[in-house]
Amino acid sequence: MSSPKSIETSTPGFWRRILCMVYEFLLLIAVLFIAGVIFHLIYHETDAPYFRLIFQFYLLSVAGIYLIWFWTHGGQTLAMQTWKIRVISANGGKMNIWQAIVRYFFTVTSISFFGCGIIWAFFDREGQFLYDRLAGTRIINVV
Q1: DSSP state at residue 94
Q2: Buried b / exposed e along 130-140 (16+ C-beta atoms within 10 A)
Q3: Angle of helix 51-72 versus helix 97-112 axis, rounded to 10
Q4: CA 56 → CA 47, 94, 101, distances in Å?
């Protein structure tokens, strides 16, 4: 019988979180590939002028649903489970749906602006990413 995992409140190292993000990106590519195939099977008219915009919004929505669901159901995506880190509310509790939505929005925004939300961790007193600060969340170690 295994004992439940204990949670440490320390922040994982910067490079560990970056490697987790790279692994998450690879998993997300697979999810988006499957979602893209399904989209193209349903929607055949690829010559429509609005097709690209709708497809991009669809993929952004699928990625959001994937991440938000994992963050609000256990605080860990598959990559975070592998790297033994978890996202929680800044007060130490479980993330709520609004925090997860805000975190996703700020994550996409801050990474899109030349990774400024990630670089922020070098200047943050606790080493947290900018989008975690703005969403009221934090990344912690799980041991």
Answers
A1: P
A2: bbbbbbebbbb
A3: 130
A4: 15, 30, 18
Alpha-carbon distance of 86 to 65, in angstroms, equals 18
CA 128 from chain centre, in angstroms, equals 14
In whole angstroms, how large is the CA radius of gyration of the chain? 17
Determine the Cα–Cα distance for residues 17 and 93; give it in Å rounded to an integer: 20
User: What's the token pair of residue 46?
Assistant: 């690829």
What are 3's two structure tokens?
Answer: 């004992």
Q: Please tell me whether the overall predicted TM-score, pTM, comes out greater than 0.85 for this model.
A: yes
Tell me the pLDDT tens digit for each residue of 31-69: 999 999 999 898 877 777 888 899 999 999 999 999 999
Q: Which residues are 68's β-sheet partners?
A: none
